[in-house]
Amino acid sequence: MDFAFSLFGKILKVGFQPDIITFNTLIKGLCVNGKVKEALHFHDHVISLGFHLDQVSYGTLINGLCKMGKTTEALQVLRKIDGKLVNTDVVMYSTIIDSLCKDKLVTEAYVLYSEMITKRISPDVVTFSALIYGFCIVGQLKEAFGLFHEMVLKNINPDVYTFNILVDAFCKEGNTKEAKNVIAMMMKEGVIPDVVTYGSLMDGYCLVNKVNKAKHVLSLISRMGLTPNANSYNIIINGFCKIKMVDEALNLFNEMCCRGIAPDKMHDRGQHANVITYNSFLHALCKNHQVDKAIAFVKKIKDHGIQPYINTYNILIDGLCKEVRLENAQVIFQDLLIKGYKVTVWTYNIMINGLCLEGLFDQAMILLEKMEENGCIPDVVTYETIIRALFKNDENDRAEKLLREMIARGLL
User: By the number of CB atoms within 10 A of the CB, which of 176, 324, 345, 379 ranks highest?
Assistant: First the structure.
């Protein structure tokens, strides 16, 4: 942006007249780089110099404000320019409607939509999709379908994104029957369902514990000539884990890895998409007393070049402690400290609970002190874990001393 503005200065210096493309490019550049405030200042400067901007300029500013979560300011810009500087258009209205709907302000969004109609600004597929999404996320599916039918009556063809919103809404309510009806409707209209469509359907089946039906949809995706992604597998893996069918989940995970999906997607999406899946695996394995399999699983994901988060290790340490394998848990805990992991209060609480279960109160107290040395502040759970264990083992004096300390810290 600095070089861009240097060139802009050069244009002025040599006596050339910048045109609307110059201004719009600079405004877009500022907005894309999150410098919306600077874009607005630049707008004011341009206007003060006697230049005029167009609908693209103001559409870009409104979009930039909405992307920054400043919907109110975007609406103010709309009001400021309306009929004075330029004529407002469908892009400006749709952008603000979309932003309002994402904030669940669907009533305000619908008022703006009605204003569009009054001004004879024709809504498009983007406008309707934004409104339908807004009504769906606040649970007003009847109103969402009303808008869908209004859209069709206006001869505006819904696209795959519009249909996916409705499929997802029904699936989130566990209503897979209606979701399938929407999919049938979209196919009748010549709109081809995509991986997202089937992902929502799989989610819906898993929500009502029909995981085998979800798995059938996964196989259907491939037969339809689509390529399942990491999310497609994650949905079913999580579904199997929730109903404690861990072996089925592991088979799917292996299939996912064999197809080269897991590692690529992990890197592309910064690991966030799959961490829930991995943690679901570990929870399920540990709850089913299969801690050795859990350890092997963590090793396997590391072999794929994926570094687990601290919460993944927390689940594993907790599973080991509950299986009375404190020494193994301590080895992992010490390894985390050595490798510089940001160990959380939860990690310490798990270890302290493990030590207390073994009656190792002195070690638990030492770990309590080390928490603070390592910049981790003990919480209510930390103190309650040790106090409860001390009282249970008739160590009343030590328990009462800790209780007083807890009160002094304002934790009780």
Answer: 176
